[in-house]
Amino acid sequence: MSSFEEHLKARLDEIAQAGLERRLRRVDSPQGVHLRVQGRDLLNFSSNDYLGLANHPALRKAAREAVETFGAGSGASRLICGSLSVHHELEETLAEFKATPAALTFSSGYSAAIGTLGACVGRNDIVILDKRVHACVVDAARLSGAKLRVFRHNDLNDLETILKWAAARPAVGGARPRVVIVTESVFSMDGDLAPLREMVELKERHGAWLMLDEAHATGVFGPRGKGLAQHCGVADQIEIQMGTLGKALGAAGGYVCGSRALIDLLINRARPFIFSTAPGPAPVAAAIAGLALAGSSEGDARRERLWKRVSEFPSGFGCGSDAGTGGSSPIRPWIIGEESRAMEVAERLRNAGIFAPAIRFPTVARGSARLRFTLTADHLAEDIGKLRQCLENAITDTAS
Ligand SMILES: *Cc1c(COP(=O)(O)O)cnc(C)c1O
């Protein structure tokens, strides 16, 4: 065996021994409440397709028509010759949806985070993150070169302590360090909400800026699904609003919404935007259709069904919380703790026909492995009933 292969094998053995090995599961059906996984039909409680749009006829049609008009590929990066009219239409639609002067799309939410923090801050600046923000924000903050500080999850006192520390830092070369707070409106692995109004008040008081990741809120929260910032009435005080087109909006890609100057700076400085081929016409057109649907009365009807299912979700399993700063969301984690036990419960559920993979380190902290159930507008009351039954059985089985 070559030394390279030996090295890889040793790394993989370490991962497996820690109970953290990951494998792909091949899915042979479109996204939906029922998935065909490795030859079996499973009831899906793991998707972020909250409104059931990923396989919606309107999005399929939009994608098909965009391929007929623009072809399969976009040919080059946006700044070369790949800035197709569908991209511009999507950005105009997004800016209108989020009520911001401008918007920019990226090939993923991940690259939107990397590009945005990288363009907005540098070595002399300070980025303050909630302990539980998504990995893309952590990576973005590290890559930006800014000084990094982390506050306890949703803890406004801890955040204020750090803001005061930041304000007391000396100016470098005559310039005060810029301070950017980054948080999520709905936390992806816990399903709880950020105390947004209070955070906006705090950052205004301390002269900091706020970047809000609405990945799990866009399409789900707020009037016509416009997000938690609009729900809380603070959208116009948030410097950077980002999110994904790949969750409730049913397509793929990332976005940033904000001022014209912010978007112009990103066009000039966001490296994943500049040095990457423009997203293909199909997902871009699907995202336009997804936004139209999310913002329509059909979107309202879908959100109503979604919240009905959330209210029916079995309580008493330690799944999710309506406590704390929370409020509920379609994300309901059942925190199990030990990695191997979470894997075992997930397998039991799978044998019973329920698909909800275990989430382990490094997606969540060590020793906080969990099953993460997500609900969608297309789940039926009887699907929730089946989940309740399977959870009861899994608890009895694993307790013995
Ligand atoms: C999924 C997710 C992203 C990344 O979005 P993609 O479009 O999937 O790359 C960013 N932030 C949060 C909180 C997410 O859950």
Q: Which characteristics define this entry?
A:
13 strands, 43% helix, alpha/beta, Aspartate Aminotransferase, domain 1, seven-stranded mixed β-sheet, Aspartate Aminotransferase, domain 2, binds pyridoxal-5'-phosphate
Summarize the structure.
43% of the residues lie in helices and 16% in strands. The protein is of the alpha/beta class and 400 residues long.
Question: Count of DSSP E strands?
Answer: 13
The CATH superfamily title of the largest domain? Type I PLP-dependent aspartate aminotransferase-like (Major domain)
CATH class of the largest domain: Alpha Beta
What is the CATH topology classification name of the largest domain? Aspartate Aminotransferase, domain 2
H/E element string? Answer: HEEHHHEHEHEHEHEHEEHHHHEHEEEH
Number of domains: 2
The low-pLDDT segments are 321-326
Shape: globular
Mean pLDDT: 94
Strand order of the largest sheet: 3-9-8-7-6-4-5
CATH architecture of the largest domain: 3-Layer(aba) Sandwich
Helix content: 40-55%
Summarize the main sheet.
Answer: 7 strands, mixed
Beta percentage is 15-25%
Structural class: alpha/beta
